[in-house]
């Protein structure tokens, strides 16, 4: 299976309104050193909604170039406009990405037949492994298990789904209908371990921006049958999971990465910095979790 284990949905570092290539390359290198299984540039966590098309292509190119084939790169390239999604997916393929992560069209609320037609149109124009991204909290549309099977059957390029409903009943039905060879990736850091138990193959994670070794380690431990270690890592990450979703993603995770000195605490509107109380709570959890020490924090905030 091509997309297996822990994939980090990477933050996109900015500096003075521009992509901070140096920080991005260093962050990617650190992720690989920490044992991450794959990387996802230009996802929701990467603030893709506010990247220009040129920036979108550049971020993917930087990631592919820095990775140099050491781990798979699954590039975000979705849109609610099918023609735009084709263009962004073409950028991803030309940049050398191993696959494309395509969100279901948001706002439009297409019918099941429209979803099948959307993914089929993209794959017809750009043949690349595709992972469907189902996140009703952002799209106002939930891909039902039968619809996912219809997409899979109609579009051979669709090899998996990033399931971000947190609904394990739905996950189970999707795996039942689509088969164990279909890659079920969690899009919800809170439910990775139970999703793996149902037959999932991994996660596209926010938390692994900060704890790549722990998230990757949990997936590996489960795959090796070491359930006790997997459970221990699940609970070790739980406080950070809660803190990183105390405000809209990716505000807390980019703040956390900046506390670690790996990027500036810079967002694009309409996202703004964390509120003082939630920021303080995040800082406390990071110190207690051991991913940050007081010296690093002082240096990063100096």
TrEMBL record:
Pathway: Amino-acid biosynthesis; L-lysine biosynthesis via DAP pathway; (S)-tetrahydrodipicolinate from L-aspartate: step 3/4
Major localization class: cytoplasm
EC category: lyase
Sorted UniProt keywords: Amino-acid biosynthesis, Cytoplasm, Diaminopimelate biosynthesis, Lyase, Lysine biosynthesis, Schiff base
Residues that, per the record, bind pyruvate: 45, 204
UniProt-listed GO biological process terms: diaminopimelate biosynthetic process; lysine biosynthetic process via diaminopimelate
Superkingdom, taxonomy of origin: Bacteria
GO molecular function: 4-hydroxy-tetrahydrodipicolinate synthase activity
Keyword Cytoplasm assigned: yes
Assigned protein family: Belongs to the DapA family.
Role played: Catalyzes the condensation of (S)-aspartate-beta-semialdehyde [(S)-ASA] and pyruvate to 4-hydroxy-tetrahydrodipicolinate (HTPA).
Listed name of the protein: 4-hydroxy-tetrahydrodipicolinate synthase
Gene of this entry: dapA
